[in-house]
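Each field is listed here:
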Amino acid sequence: MRKHQQEQLQNLVTTLYEATDEIKRQFKQKNIPTVINLLSDCQDAAVYIGEFIEDLEGEGTRTVELLTAYHTSLYNIAVKIEKINGSFIAQLKKELRMIENSVKNELKPNKLEVVFFPYKASMWDSLESVWMAANEDEQCEAYVVPIPYFDRNPDGSFGDIHYEGGDMPEYVPVTHYESYDISIRRPDVVYIHNPYDDYNSVTSVDPRFYSQELKEYTETLVYIPYYSTSGGMAEGQKSCSAYYHADYIVTQSEKQRNFFDSTFSKKMLPLGSPKFDRVIRICNNPPAPPTAWKAKMAGKKNYFFNTSINGLLSNTEVFLKKIQYVFNVFAVHDNVCLLWRPHPLLESTLDSMRPEYKQIYSLLKRFFIENDIGIYDDTPDITSTIALCDAYIGDSGTSVVSLFGIVGKPIFILDNNINSAPDEDDWRGAIISRIFNVYSDDRWLITRGDKLYYSPDNNYKYQYMCDLSDYAYGDYYSYALTVGDRTYICPKNAQDIIVFYENKISKRIRLKRCTERPGSFDGAISCGKFIFLIPRLYPAIVRYNTENGEIHYFDTNLDVINGKKNGEHLVGGYCVQNGYLFIASPVSNHVLAIEAQSGKEQVLTTGANNTFGCMALSSDGTNLWFLPFSGTAVTCWNPKSGEIREYSDFPENLKCRNIHFGFECMDRPFSRPAFSGDYVYLAPYWSNMYIKLNRVTGESAEWEPPFDAPDAIKNGYYASWCKSWFVYPTDEDNKCYHLFSLYDTKLYNVDLENSKYEEIKIEFDNNELKANEPGFRRNSEWLQYCCEENAFNTLSDFLEGDITGNNFNKEYQIKAYEEIAANNDGSCGEKIHKFIKEQLNIN
């Protein structure tokens, strides 16, 4: 007996109660023919209920005996109806109560109908172990019903339809979706792995199978993520359509609860990932490789090359060049085999979101296959492929990383920007990319991997001081601020402040832990005795009092300083002036002003015509200068007098180019300026020139820097999010400024008045850098254990086993993954099935 069948019986008994009440009413009115007809209808209902029960439970149940007695009573009453009084009503209700109790106690639900609705055969692994548990359970009828899905056209309409029922594993019995009518079957439990419903720009399952439709016909709708994770989660997974309709959302671990919108917290089941169940099972007993693969794999190390949708969309041109580079590297290594497995939706994504690159991708694919560079894997079962491979190379933001991680196979994370072998000094690109902030203390430098370096003579010759984190990477800290005799290491992805005193860590100031995602803070700035942390994802501006240790959280005006444009999370520019912290809006002309000492907040409006938001805010001592996110209008505003002036008369050939995607735009033109006399010098962020602006007359002209300013990054080992910025003045008259050129990581002292410069050498001990290179190590909370591609550890180094830093350790990797995966012994599916049964009271 299934639960909904018991409910049907209970509803039928309720109908008999209602019929009995109607019999009583008609009997009182002496409508005897109507009473006789109603008694006959009740007899028919009793027969129907009895047959329904015997079809399900067989003969001999107590409930059917009671129904038979009730049927006899109805007959006897009908025969004598003209001679008896109304006491027979009480007798009928007594018998119905006995039937009702028998249905409740004898016919308890002991069967479940469970249906699984996968749409991509390659994603079946996210459901399989739960199906296995249900399929082996004698109390369950388990159905696997692959459902169709559509590609999206560029305009969002439905394109080609796909059905992958034929691609499911042979041992999985498949029911065609047209043969399973959920409205009739009304399964007790429905499992899905697509959370998007109509909100996916690449594909859509058949609308008949959107979560809100399924929920109408089942008591329990369970969403199991189609992905697994190495610790982090994409922002897009925080809230999806299916979460609103699902009764339960399976998460990989308890820690992941905080990644989701708090609205869904009570729905979370932190029981692990069925994907891990499957990969553990298959890797413990690997299959034989397909016949076409055997010769290519024989006697070689086999490398799984993953090309993900995230990598494709982040910068398609760079992504395609990276693919070609990987092909080239493998082509000169004879003892290895490259197995290329693109994401199953990659070509659909190209068609719908990057159609202009489809031909280039197709040529790469054809080149790979026709030149027999390796194995092109388009099989539906990724798990078997993982079992046959020795190591992973590819992006970090993909489920595949975690599948290799959980079974202890090496993970080498590629940097898609790198498409050539490094030159001797290319390590500088990563080591010197995050320093020289207008607010920071240059004596202290935090390099990639949260390693703290110090220049004891304040001459830009740095020596290693210590590791700031137990992780190898993670960008936990941004830069150092010195207040009094102490230096404060400010967080970026961390949620604490590290205090240095007498060149050693004296304490860590723990903040409230409010987010599990990277991106807690956008920056930090000091104002007298206070340090302010500017939030990105952290839900408050933090003020730390360096004298008494007090921490204050400002959380009421975050909507002013945060905003979104084209889906990108933006934080406005900030600076201090006259005892106030000012943070501009990234999308309007509002400004949040906080008086540092009192903590009093005010939301101000500049009155500027430019409402495109501020990406950098600088003070000249009297005025605040707003550099725009969009357009070229620069605003100068006096917060005391309210006086405002806007400058937009710039050279006609001023243009911007989006550094990440390469297209021309008018976004992020300028970075930190320099103020010298009547002039403001604007350094390019994404624009094509430096500008010299006369703040008095408003006239501007292109300023030619005296040094060679590169038009592009040297190569992929160098950061490319911005071109350059002025740091701070180096003389009392503000005639000379430090300027940092990010494209080639060079620091200059520039005499603005005389157009002269001096390059300031930034020096490290190369051997010391190599000695501190992590190699294979705990990476971060969001990427457990791996080695990252860089100038010290190239793809060729990895293939040749020549790693700088720690060599791979399988035991360490598996131990790291234990922390972010519940039931990582392969029992997740069993635990999910058991839990759902218990919630439905199936014993």
Q: What stands out?
A: Residues 427-555+764-783 form a domain with the Lipocalin fold (CATH 2.40.128.630). The longest helix spans residues 3-28.
